[in-house]
């Protein structure tokens, strides 16, 4: 598949993303959780407020509550009672009278305004108001924060710490949420060793599953880590079968590029319907996607930058849909580029950039330097992707480019 802007035989990035999204479905199982266990779950219900917040008119100050009309005849009112938070004034009051009131205490029904205690003088039970007052001063009205029936949270919201507080403030003890996704991680490669192990000649440390597990943790899914699987048909097959049984999504890294893909590809051809795509993006051309018996499968390239970028730009978007969360919003800016950038037309490029503000107060982006797909440190230095469209060639310093700010997953 190709279009005007991509190299022949390469699947345009947008099309790959759309194909993938069309093939994944959100989880449907829900559970009811007490709110103190619901942090970072995705809501499966809309939440309308069962009450007004605050539930009654109350005082915003420690002071004296009164009816504004009383002050038309005299600036001195008679103290006849008190209203405390949790112990409201129960009686009646008349013109010319006032009530001692504390912050948060319910307004007596006979009063409409409050004066703070610093602005009155007190002699026995006589309270003299020293300043002009307006109707409703220092009163917090019932429902001024949230009105009864008002929608406060929506299905698809991932509950934040503040949301949990809002639910508590509405008296809601339990919520209906979607169950968490289970995602299996498989790193393939005979050369891979775990951090902490000794390297033999030709070995490297396995890093992809560590980056991906950390990003998946931020996505609030359960990670099932299969560790490193050797390049062996039976071992790979056993791992994929087991992963598929346990997880909603299986993610592997390595072994999807032509030639060395043999085991992964033959195993996956046997186990499911997997498309081995060559996507017109850089880094990350080889990418496999499809369905196993029970789960969806994302086959990421082995090179660390390619694995991370394809996960971030493609798999993460699909997993967000699968967990029923709202689509990710990524922030793009058009800014001046202060470096020359190498690029040949044909693939959508996600170069690593450092966005900063120059001495004139303008946003400028510079390259992190060498952009090889194995150079993980290029991502560690960066705070944005410089997104260069397929048809774009090299960029001269001073040109305007699009950057995508790193989001909370990076
Ligand atoms: P592959 O896609 O298996 O051909 O791997 C491409 C490159 O990425 C090779 O240099 C691998 O050694 C490297 N690589 C593969 N898997 C990992 C991993 N999990 N962590 C770090 N590097 C990897
Ligand atoms: Mg490999």
Outline the structure in words.
With 410 residues, the chain is α/β, with parallel strands linked by helices. It is elongated. It has four domains: 164 residues, MoaB/Mog-like domain (Molybdenum Cofactor Biosythetic Enzyme, Chain A, 3-Layer(aba) Sandwich), CATH 3.40.980; 52 residues, Alpha-Beta Complex (Molybdopterin biosynthesis moea protein, domain 2), CATH 3.90.105; 83 residues, Beta Complex (Molybdopterin biosynthesis moeA protein, domain 3), CATH 2.170.190.11; 74 residues, Beta Barrel (Beta-clip), CATH 2.40.340. Bound molecules: adenosine monophosphate and magnesium ion. Adenosine monophosphate binds next to helix 4.
Please render the helix and strand layout as text.
Elements: H1 13-23, E1 30-34, E2 47-48, E3 58-59, E4 63-66, H2 70-73, E5 76-83, E6 97-101, E7 113-116, E8 120-123, E9 126-129, E10 139-140, E11 151-153, H3 161-169, E12 174-178, E13 182-188, E14 192-193, E15 204-205, H4 208-218, E16 222-229, H5 233-246, E17 249-253, H6 262-271, E18 273-278, E19 281-282, E20 286-291, E21 296-300, H7 304-322, E22 332-337, E23 348-357, E24 363-367, H8 376-381, E25 384-388, E26 400-405
Parallel strand pairs: 5-6, 13-16, 13-17, 14-15, 17-21, 19-23, 22-24
Antiparallel strand pairs: 1-12, 2-11, 3-10, 4-6, 4-7, 5-9, 8-9, 18-20, 20-21, 22-26, 23-24, 23-25, 25-26
This protein binds adenosine monophosphate (AMP) and magnesium ion.
Residues 187, 189, 191-192, 204, 206-209, 253-257, 260, 301-304 line the site of adenosine monophosphate (AMP).
